[in-house]
């Protein structure tokens, strides 16, 4: 159960729920999201953490190494391995600013505003965007192989945008509704944007995998303002692990944010350097969702 919280703070659940969620999430991810989760290793570690939860000290604890002696009694031996605790996943679903991490180079900050667009307005906007944006399926390249991105996209901006090793051509012909939404978003956030990536998730099978919006063209600390229309999808975030974990995401912090019809999410500061995000597939009926992510693309001569 998620405890109630003020809009300025994240919500935390109980230890039991956390464990159940971690296990359910591990099972779900192992089943549906493919190979990134090391299923057998993380399951075993989760069970050990649960068994020793009362001995937890400041996020880590020792797992005694119990061995049967020759006469059948169990004798205590010195611990051989530090067991680490998997951080509880947090949910952000209320309006507010959230500092999700802070490091030597600055903070990673989110701003969420459900109902940024009035629901009735958002209804006709969705219809217009769905019908009038020139949606296309992009080909990406991963590990030298080309694949079709499982969603439709459109790009607006004076400069091209390259991600996943393929470019979207510049397109200066903004739809009037997009100009209106850009102006409104700029007025409320105080930021300016010169580009827009539009995403259409046709159903629950459409998704975007873990990534950061950290292409050099987006500058040092990209500010991304994201508007959602249509069905709610879960936007998941995970912190990048420290170098000593060598790419193992088992113990990283995780956040889930349901992005609902008409909501605004802003990511800023170090968020793209420190965190990854994705919209995972969902294996139950999902209606279409449109996502508009306003950004600033810098020409090569202005990048630092
Ligand atoms: O659909 C979303 O909310 C996120 C889209 C996204 O992460 C991206 O296009 O970079």
How would the blueprint of this fold be written?
Elements: H1 15-32, H2 39-51, E1 60-62, E2 65-68, E3 74-77, E4 82-84, E5 90-91, E6 96-103, E7 106-113, H3 119-132, E8 139-142, E9 145-148, E10 152-157, E11 161-163, E12 166-168, H4 176-189, E13 195-201, E14 208-211, E15 224-230, E16 233-239, E17 254-259, E18 264-269, H5 271-274, E19 275-279, E20 289-295
Parallel strand pairs: 5-17
Antiparallel strand pairs: 1-4, 2-3, 6-7, 7-18, 8-9, 10-13, 11-12, 13-20, 14-19, 15-18, 15-20, 16-17, 16-19
Helix pairs in contact: 1-2
The chain binds 2-oxoglutaric acid.
2-oxoglutaric acid is lined by residues 197, 199, 208, 213, 226, 235, 259, 277, 279, 291, 293.
Subcellular location: Cytoplasm; Nucleus
Keywords: Cytoplasm, Dioxygenase, DNA damage, DNA repair, Hydroxylation, Iron, Metal-binding, Nucleus, Oxidation, Oxidoreductase, Ubl conjugation
Protein name: Alpha-ketoglutarate-dependent dioxygenase alkB homolog 3
